[in-house]
Amino acid sequence: MGFLQPELPVVDMAEWSKGTRGERIRPMARHWAEVGFGTPVVLHLFYVGKIVLYVLGGWLIVLATKGVDGFTDVGAWWSEPIVFQKIVLYTLLFEVVGLGCGFGPLNNRFFPPFGSILYWLRPKTIRLPPWPGRIPLTKGDSRSVLDVALYAALLVLTVIALLSDGTGPVRELDTTVGLLPMWQILAVLGVLAVLGLRDKVIFLAARGEVYATLAVTFLFTGTDMIVAAKVVFLVIWMGAATSKLNKHFPFVVSTMMSNSPVVRRKALKRKFFENFPDDLRPGRRSRIFAHGATAVELLVPPVLFFSHGGLVTAIAAIVMVGFHLGILTAVPMGVPLEWNVFMIFGVLSLFVAHADLGLGDLHNPAPVAVLFVVIAGLVIAGNLFPRKISFLPGMRYYAGNWDTTMWCVKPSAAAKIGQGIVAIASMPQAQLERFYGKDRAVIPMFMGYAFRAMNTHGRALFTLVHRAMPDGREDEYTITDGERICSTALGWNFGDGHMHNEQLIAAMQRRCRFEPGEVRVVLLDAQPIHKGTQEYRLVDAATGEFERGFVNVADMVTRQPWADDVPVHVRD
């Protein structure tokens, strides 16, 4: 890959353009297999710099606390409980502003590189309430001045907490600095809860399933807070591992390792596939990596939780730090980079610094047990009923098993979106043309198709787009990943099809008044853990759903990325 320029596939544009969509994806998939997206080195360095700034920002915020002193004397204060509290709230703020997951060009966000705060401080942008028919005062999909004020209040309250001092000595935690005032935690959680009921996107963007849940543990007293936070980490790890017990995850590994800036040699990247260049299903190495990573994430955290210090704890901590460093250095699409840095800090701050604290040290086990039941129950429900629960609270992180959509958009509809949607960024194709030039923008667009196709669900999506568009008129449409639409319309995206399903389609239809046939959408649900199928729906933005059915996962995993012939089972 080049330092300043992307390493894109070299094709004969005239000949390549004559092929079918599958034929044009084939060279892109092969290029991905040995190069990845071809990201310039300078862009990876940009993300490294962002991580450094994230760490430096947290460092300075912690040092602003009375009783925490010494920029280089980290050993004197790194294990203070208030340090962990502040890093949790700081990372929540970092994410909800838009600087974390989903930031920048590696998430196909070029101009500007983030949305979030630019959207959510602006009235009349789209909001998506999770239960508008059940929760009073949440109906509608237009952001009001009240919504803007609530979001601003969340930012202000979080900053106030970050700049606060501790409440004083807590003997059982061996701290003279103390903890954050309880009212500040309650205020942040209360505002975030109300915001989440008004707009689920903001709650998801704040990574509420991680940072809000950890903030709940700050409402517990003394050692109960530390033990409860450990329980949350345990559920995150083991929940994520459980969701990876599927046929999809090896495809994630092969795709991610191909895009890794650390794995530079093309010959090594090819070994992650069955038989490059003709068979791009995951090879033995990908399967070993996938099963090994799942075993680590499932088996090591209980050891870390129950070992209570000594050599066993040290080894388990080193393994989990290495696990997150492996994800971090692969720079996965969606770029959850700071989240992995935070998880590494959590290993050290909770399980090493407070290794001696465990379930036997709880003064009031009931609230911790309730918290465990709630978050573990969400993980179970998310795996059983993925259409109902986002992959984030369901903790199906990078399992290859997500709700996805593919939008078929006519140029006339794209123009209506540009005019009817209050947005900061232009449509994805326009951003690509601005960044790569109009003549070459089609190449990165098809590289995006290839990325989707390298994952199992891509085979089904590209099969179903044929059924979504009228016969013989496919050339009238631009095929756009639902995440890109979500990024433009909502200001944030992170691989969650719940944000660009029928609810977003209806909100955009109210604003854009699409004609029948102008926008057709393929919606593919994730696979429930106890079934071997994935449900789909085909929706016309103007007239509604016109077909539903399912595809078998077994049919998807046996096909190549350029396949668009997965058997489809239509329900009557």
Topology:
Elements: H1 13-16, H2 21-35, H3 41-63, H4 81-97, H5 117-120, H6 145-162, H7 182-198, H8 200-205, H9 211-217, H10 223-243, H11 249-258, H12 266-270, E1 273-275, E2 279-282, H13 284-307, H14 310-330, H15 337-352, H16 365-384, E3 404-409, H17 411-420, H18 428-436, H19 442-454, H20 456-468, E4 478-481, H21 482-490, H22 502-512, E5 519-524, E6 533-540, E7 544-552, H23 553-557, E8 569-570
Antiparallel strand pairs: 1-2, 3-4, 3-5, 5-6, 6-7, 7-8
Relevant terms:
6-stranded antiparallel β-sheet; 23 helices; alpha+beta
Protein described:
It is a single chain. The chain is an alpha+beta fold and 572 residues long. Helix content is 52%, strand content 7%. It contains 23 helices and eight strands. The protein has helices at residues 13-16, 21-35, 41-63, 81-97, 117-120, 145-162, 182-198, 200-205, 211-217, 223-243, 249-258, 266-270, 284-307, 310-330, 337-352, 365-384, 411-420, 428-436, 442-454, 456-468, 482-490, 502-512, 553-557; strands spanning 273-275, 279-282, 404-409, 478-481, 519-524, 533-540, 544-552, 569-570. The strands form two sheets. It has a six-stranded antiparallel β-sheet. It has a two-stranded antiparallel ribbon with strand order 1-2. Strand 1 (273-275) and strand 2 form a beta hairpin. Helix 19 (442-454) crosses helix 20. The longest helix has 24 residues, at 284-307. The termini are far apart.
Short overview:
By secondary structure, this protein is of the alpha+beta class.
Structural class: alpha+beta
Please give the order of strands in the largest beta sheet: 4-3-5-6-7-8
Low-confidence runs (pLDDT<50, min 5 residues)? none
Strand content: 5-15%
Average residue-wise pLDDT: 94
User: What share of the residues lie within helices?
Assistant: 40-55%
Beta-strand segment tally: 8
Oligomer: single chain
Largest sheet: 6 strands, antiparallel
